[in-house]
Amino acid sequence: MGEKNVVVVGAGVAGLTTALLLSRKTGYKIVVAAKHMPGDYDIEYASPWAGANYMPVSIRGTAAAEWDKNTWGPLEDLAQNHPEAGVHFQDCEIHSRAKDVGSATANWFAELLSPSPWFKEVLPNFRAIPKESLRPGIDHATVFTSVCINTAIYLPWLVSQCLKNGVVFRRAVFKHISEASSPSIHPSNKVDLVINCTGLMACRLGGVEDQSVVPARGQIVIVRNDAGKMLDISGTDDGDDEACYIMTRAAGGGTILGGSYQKGNWESQVDPNLAIRIMKRAVELCPSLTGGKGIEHLDVIRHGVGLRPVREGGTRIEKEKIGGVWVVHNYGAGGAGYQSSYGCAQAAVALVEEAFEVRARL
């Protein structure tokens, strides 16, 4: 079989990572076709808004934990050897309060909050923080070395690596997934396989219309103040769907203060009252942000809202025939888009190769 012509729909972290890993194999001619590209800021496009970091929430023994585990090595390599990718190492402290048990945030973070999570064998320097050094109200805490990703550098870096490998990028809006296999999309005038990395929009795309995909609205404040580490806590006193986390992006990307986890909420505009609560919680969790002073000493760059593409039942990595063409799905990672990106892309690429093997046998 000659050249294998593939169209990847979506240029978020899932689409770009999948295109990159596939472009490292021989014999593929790849087009990434997407409505939104790195550099765009749109509520339908979650990737630029992410923190982003490696803070696994996947449950031990699941496929999701395997994808997260397979992503750590590549991210560690980028932080160590490729400064131009905008990924750096950072200590990550996870604080836990007994009173948060059963809340939406604590349930979302269950594995992360465990004193003995699966990733303690994967991440460097995992240890418990002694009880006596914790603030009042914190029942236990762990710390480990992780990475934080400056999405404004990393997404264009992924594009540049794809371009180096001959991947073609083009703007396109599809109403139905079958439109991605139309010959006019690909320079070869022929499409053999489509990879669907449409994130949240998988719930509206014809031929897919996955109703189990819903937004989990995250609101953030980006500030110039440096936290020097990542911090996360099991919950807040401000409501079930609010969260508190802090991370400083690589290469001058500012510090992200979050957040919220508002399932089913499509609101793209910033809620100013939530922004105040986010800043107050951040300054309380990490007094060094403002030298112990109030939120008026935070130097705000901007406010943002992103919609995590959450899929009930987890990320969908499957292949199926739609309109006679193989479609490999890789969408619905929710808040784990970056920290599972390589593992999910590897699994998707394996399905692509499987589909072509089936074709070759026919």
From TrEMBL:
Binding site for D-dopa: Y245, R308, G335
EC number in record: 1.4.3.3
Localization (cell): Peroxisome matrix
Broad class of the protein's primary localization: other
Cellular component GO terms held in the UniProt record: peroxisomal matrix
FAD dependent oxidoreductase domain sequence ranges: 6-350
Keyword Transmembrane belongs to the record: yes
Entry's family note: Belongs to the DAMOX/DASOX family.
The protein's name: D-amino-acid oxidase
Naturally occurring in which organism (per UniProt): Exophiala mesophila
